[in-house]
Specification:
Keywords: Heme, Iron, Metal-binding, Monooxygenase, Oxidoreductase. One of its GO terms (molecular function) is iron ion binding. 49% of the residues lie in helices and 11% in strands. With 461 residues, it is an alpha+beta fold. The chain has a domain at 1-83 and 330-364. Helix 7 (120-135) packs parallel to helix 18 and helix 8 (146-163) runs antiparallel to helix 13 (270-285). It is globular and about 65 Å long. The protein binds protoporphyrin IX containing FE. Residues 92-93, 104, 158, 263-264, 267-268, 271-272, 275, 330-331, 334, 397-399, 403, 405-407, 410-411 line the site of protoporphyrin IX containing FE (HEM).
Length: 461
């Protein structure tokens, strides 16, 4: 067998002699990944300054190696865990090892499809409230920031799914605190470790601490009132509180419930909101797809409110949403840190915090070997026949392997219901002259928001 090559011998753009590819990583990461893969193939090494190597893979075989077959050799990067810790603590996204395994086992039943179906009504209610607000706008001909609208909607939905109505008295306080906490966590992750340490009383740190304090007090108060029997709820929090380890009989502590609740709150709204924003943008650009999607909604629902049972019938709508997440995957990159030595594509991977292995859905979903004419928006790619011909790891908006998104069915149901309800009553149009560009922060957002015209389909709609 040939000797494995060293990292230094791995293919990839050389970049600046000292900084490597770090400038482009800052200014245009999407193009950096796309171009590197176009030029050097499905395994590339990028240099982030003199000491850090970023290995990026876009072939289903290599992705499977990292995320599935040898997942034990790749953990969440320690820097990511450190930056997310103040908000997410030891929740499902940041935890690892046996503790993560136990939590995942405890939480999985809360996300089964039958259980999720009970949340459909409140998802549709929240959508109808948004549409009522759209209808009542004082200046309906002005464009609306549809990205912000989707964020507000999905935050409300996951809040209700977690805490039923318990949070409603505090909804705007919690919403604001979460927005501050999310913005600061994103900023920290993107700053590559260059931010003022927590003990310094900068304005940002103080606002962050205050936001965390608000979240903690609201969440701990809800838990305490549930434990005292003062309130009840048929919601995610109730199932998390009831979940019991099959071997030990243990349940989650209040601190663990808090970490899981903030994790679901955060992981569960920005991603879905961005996926929906991109969908509205793409539909406005592709009127023939929009017409077909609206016709399906009309045929299946005929004007009535959608339910969870309608979702399997809304097949084309699901394909449209899947194709939107192919072109604009909200989690545009996933990172791992090798915790055991490995050999990947014939290259030695040392177990080191200075090596990060990434599987970037944005580039994987544009790999021309897997996706012919990758820039073309074509929901037919997700017909059952075409899907059956692709390797599973060619499409990973929700990740893959054991760390697959626990909320994938939640998000798919939520998105389908929202799209169906909006399409029944409104048409969203692009604002002429406004260029929509992707901005790869922690999630992939439309840069500067997404202004669109929202027009009711019927005067009385
Ligand atoms: C379109 C919407 C969504 C997208 C694109 C998305 C994407 C992802 C991805 C790619 C991962 C894996 C990250 C990695 O391996 O590094 C993930 C994990 C996770 N997601 Fe989602 N997600 C979405 C919606 C949701 C929702 C609605 C919830 C909860 C209500 C949720 C909760 C989580 C949690 C808790 C994890 C960590 C799972 C674990 O490590 O065991 N997500 N998500």
């Amino acid at each position: 067998m040939p000797e494995a090559r060293t990292l230094g011998e791995a293919p990839g753009p050389r970049g600046h002699w000292f900084w490597g590819n770090i400038q482009e990583r800052r200014h245009d990461p999407l193009q950096l990944f796309l171009r590197a893969h176009q030029e050097y193939g499905e395994f590339v090494r990028l240099r982030m300054g003199p000491t850090i190597s970023l290995i990026s893979v876009t072939s289903p075989e290599l992705i499977k190696h990292v995320l599935v077959d040898h997942a034990d050799r790749y953990g969440k990067p320690s820097s990511l865990v450190r930056d997310a810790w103040p908000v997410l603590g030891n929740g499902l996204f940041t935890s690892s090892g046996d503790f993560w395994k136990r939590q995942r086992r405890l939480m999985q039943p809360s996300f089964h499809k039958e259980r999720l179906a009970t949340l459909a009504g409140s998802m549709v209610d929240a959508t109808r409230q948004m549409l009522a607000r759209w209808r009542a706008r004082p200046s309906p001909s002005e464009p609306l920031d549809v990205a912000a609208e989707m964020m507000h909607l999905t935050l409300g939905i996951v809040g209700r799914a977690l805490f039923s109505t318990d949070v409603s008295g505090n909804a705007s306080r919690v919403g604001q605190a979460l927005t501050v906490a999310l913005a600061e966590t994103n900023r920290r992750i993107l700053s590559l470790g260059l931010y003022a340490p927590d003990f310094l009383p900068t304005a940002r740190n103080r606002a962050f601490r205050q936001a965390l304090g608000t979240l903690d007090s609201v969440i701990f108060d809800i838990i305490a009132r549930r434990r005292a029997g003062e309130t009840q709820g048929d919601d995610l929090l109730a199932t998390l509180m009831a979940a019991q380890d099959a071997d030990t009989g243990e349940r989650m502590t209040d601190a663990q419930l808090r970490d899981e609740a903030t994790t679901l709150f955060l992981a569960g709204h920005e991603t879905t909101a961005n996926a929906l924003a991109w969908l509205w943008h793409l539909l406005a650009q592709n009127p023939e797809v929009e017409t077909r999607a609206r016709a399906e909604v009309q045929r299946v629902l005929g004007g009535r409110t959608p339910t969870a049972q309608d979702i399997p019938q809304l097949r084309y709508l699901t394909q449209v949403f899947e194709e939107a997440m192919r072109l604009y995957p909200p989690a545009w990159i996933m990172a791992r840190q090798p915790v055991k030595e490995d050999v990947l594509a014939g290259v030695q991977i040392p177990a080191s915090p200075r090596v990060i292995v990434v599987t970037p859905p944005y580039a994987i979903h544009r790999n021309p070997r897997l996706w012919p004419e990758p820039e073309r928006f074509d929901p037919e790619r997700f017909s059952p026949e075409q899907t059956a011909q692709r390797p599973r790891m060619a499409y990973l908006p929700f990740g893959g392997g054991q760390r697959l998104c626990i909320g994938n069915n939640f998000a798919l149901m939520e998105a389908t219901l929202i799209i169906a309800e909006v399409l029944q009553h409104f048409r969203l149009r692009a604002v002429p002259g406004h260029t929509v560009e992707p901005e790869p922060l922690v999630t992939l957002r439309p840069k500067g928001g997404l202004p669109m015209f929202v027009e009711p389909l019927h005067a009385s709609a």
